[in-house]
Amino acid sequence: MTIILIGLGTGGCSFSRNDKNAYARAEDSDLTGSIAMPVAAPTETDLAFARNAASDVLSKGDKDSSQHWENPETGARGSVTPIAQSYAAEDGRRCRDFLASYVNGDTESWLQGAGCQSSRGRWEIHTLKPWRS
C-alpha cells in the first residue's frame, strides 16, 4: 500500500522566531469588553412563589434562616434570606428587608424586597424588584 503525502512541507503559512510580527497583537480598537447577556425577567408566577417564600421566612423570625422556593411551571428557583433586623414603619407595623435569589436555566440574578407584618400576624410582601447594589 502506497501513501502519498502532498504538500506536507509546502503549506501556505510560515513562522519565524526572529519576526517581530509573528504574534498577533490586539489594538485598542479591537477590544470590545464583555458581552452583556440579556437577563430573563421573572414571570409573575415566579414572583408569586418568591413572595410566598419571603412571607414564610419572615414569619419564622429567625436571624439566620433562608427559605427555598421553586416554580415547577417555569423551572425557576431560588431562596429568600432576611438581611436586616425588623424596623417600625411609619404606620407602626413591623417590617423587614430581604434578598431573594433567582435562577432560571443559565440566568442568575438577585431581587430585593421588603415585607411588613399585618394586624393578623401574616407577613405581607409589599416590595420585590431587581436588586441594585
Architecture overview:
Helices cover 13% and strands 32% of the residues. With 133 residues, it is an alpha+beta fold. It has a domain at 44-130. Strands 1, 2, 3, 4, 5 and 6 form a 6-stranded antiparallel sheet that branches. The radius of gyration is 28 Å and the shape is elongated. The N and C termini lie far apart (70 Å).
Order of helices and strands: HEEEEEE
Span between termini:
70 Å
Helical segment count = 1
Task: Label the structural class.
Answer: alpha+beta
Helix content: 10-25%
Number of extended strands: 6
- Shape call: elongated
In what range is the share of β-strand residues? 25-35%
- Mean of residue pLDDT values: 79
Radius of gyration in whole Å, from Cα? Answer: 28 Å
Low-confidence stretches: 2-31
| Sheet with most strands | 6 strands, antiparallel
Quick description:
This protein is of the alpha+beta class. The protein is built from one helix and six strands; from the N terminus they run αββββββ. Strands 1, 2, 3, 4, 5 and 6 form a six-stranded antiparallel beta sheet that branches.
